[in-house]
Amino acid sequence: MITRPTATEINSAIDEITSHEVFHRSPLMCAFLRYVASETMAGRESRINAYSVAIDALKKNPTFDPQADPSVRVLAKRLRDSLDTYYSRANGFNVMIIMRPGSYVPVFEKVAYYPRVF
Q1: What is the DSSP letter of 57?
Q2: pTM
Q3: Rounded distance, CA 19 to CA 77, Å?
């Protein structure tokens, strides 16, 4: 059975993720992750789309056109790949944030904490 983590656990996981070497040099990816997570936790996941991410998280100009500018889609792909890399390298975690292809809405899963053994 999958248990949904608390907001505190999710925010703690985001802090750990964004301070990891995979993310710390990409403030846009961190802003993207924080934005979609906070909107989802607030129950506004239906509001999350390429335009809202561009304007609210990435501070693009209000004339941003997601059909003409693929930058949000490209960053979403980088975010998904970076989350995969983070979870493959992390030294233990108890919350997974999953970004499925085709969606900007994250899924939060509480998992058993297993520290990695090297």
Answers
A1: I
A2: 0.90
A3: 19
End-to-end CA distance of the chain, in Å? 29
| Buried-state track 20-44, b at ≥16 Cβ within 10 A, e below 16 | eebbeebeebbbbbbbbbbbbbeee
DSSP letter for 88, please: H
| Phi (first) and psi of residue 74, to 5 degrees | -65, -45
Q: Six-digit token pair at 76?
A: 């979403």
pLDDT, one tens digit per residue, over 70-91 is 999 999 999 999 999 999 988 7
Q: Report the distance separating Cα 57 and Cα 51, nearest Å.
A: 10
Say if CB 84 and CB 56 are below 8 A apart: no
Tens of pLDDT, residues 43-73: 999 999 999 999 999 999 999 999 999 999 9
